[in-house]
Amino acid sequence: MNRYLLDNRRPEAGERFVALAELFDPWTFRHLDDLGLGEGWRCWEVGAGGVSVPRGLAERVGPSGRVLATDIDVSWTEPAADGVLEVRRHDVLRDPPPSETFDLVHARLVLVHLSDRAAALRVLVDALRPGGWLVIEDADPALQPLACPDERGPAEELANRLRARIRTLMAERGADLAYGRTLPRLLRESGLSDVRAEAYSPIASPACSILEAATVRHVRDELLAAELATEEEIETHLANLALGDMDLTLAPMITAWARKRDMP
Question: Which pTM was predicted?
Answer without folding.
Answer: 0.94
